[in-house]
Amino acid sequence: MRFIFLIPDFDLGKTWKIQEKIAHLLRLKPLQRKVFLGMRTDVVFGGTLNIMRHCWIARNCGAEAVLATLRGVDTYGDRGIKNLPFIPWDARRKEDVCIVPDYVTSRIDEVEGRAIAYLQVPLHTHADFNYQDPCVSLWTDSPHMEAICNATYPGKAAQIVPNIIDPELFPFIPQSQREPGVLFAFPRKNPEFIDATENAYRALGGKYWRIERIDGLSISELAKEFQRPQGFLASAEVEGCALPPQESMASGIVVVGRQAKGANFCMEQGKTAAIAETPQEAAQRLIELENAEVRDRMSRNAYQAISRYFPDREPTEFWQKIIQQYKSPALTF
Hints:
There is one protein chain. This protein is of the alpha/beta class and 333 residues long. It has 2 domains: 3-163 and 312-325, Rossmann fold; 175-309, Rossmann fold, CATH 3.40.50. Helices cover 34% and strands 16% of the residues. The chain has helices at 15-26, 29-37, 46-60, 143-152, 191-203, 219-225, 243-251, 279-288, 292-306, 314-325; strands spanning 3-6, 9-10, 40-41, 65-69, 86-88, 97-101, 114-119, 136-140, 158-160, 182-185, 210-213, 231-234, 254-257, 274-275. The chain has a 7-stranded parallel sheet with strand order 5-4-1-6-7-8-9, with helices on both faces. A 5-stranded parallel sheet has the order 11-10-12-13-14, sandwiched between helices. The longest helix has 15 residues, at 46-60. It starts with a strand and ends in an 8-residue tail after the last helix.
């Protein structure tokens, strides 16, 4: 028995992107589905990295665990998690346990044995597979997503599984040792919120914080950059596993911004983060976070809260239980 973690191929080629654009512009649903199920991406999303980390933890716990793509080769390089084996999706066996990401859960019906739908993103959560099959289980990552799963898959409980934060990749660095006033933001996640927050902050007379927009970095490049800022602006209206705010907390960076409708469930106002659902609120929070003592206290509280997701804590406990749970080939769920 192996644990097979399905992820997309990383592909910077132009052909599939052209097909995707044509399908979108002309609303050609058959072509859209073909491109979608082709499972190629030119962005390494946090959800994919989280799946890779689960594979890594499972292997550390003694399981035979591999990543699967349609092509079966590592196309990620430095953008992924190193030293994880890859196999073609078609090389799965009946006795394997297949973990399938939310945006291609329709592929679960291809699995002969046991399968797990890993549901991390609200927009990708659909009842497009036989979720009532006793050999199919549901995983998700937050109370917010659990409620969505309950509505989407009535009669089938979803298990909340821990995200995985790597403290070696994102080590804690105190606020006093970071670049004063540097505030990171991801422009691919609601750039309008970022711009409006910046303008509102200036209108309040704020001069301490300066926003740096970060995009297109590999995970190793991002980890290196995360050693610099004092703050992170969470701008997304909807999130999946919401790794950037959690990695910020592990690093000693104060997080200000949106809870993403509950996806950023580790954010607790005034204790582990500065919650702000509008640019005006975010600007006011940034004024409050100009206080060094407030920042230092909040960053240390956040670190303590997020440390539960370090590999040797809840993720390892979770995988030790899962491995025992799936050892019996006759076991159904």
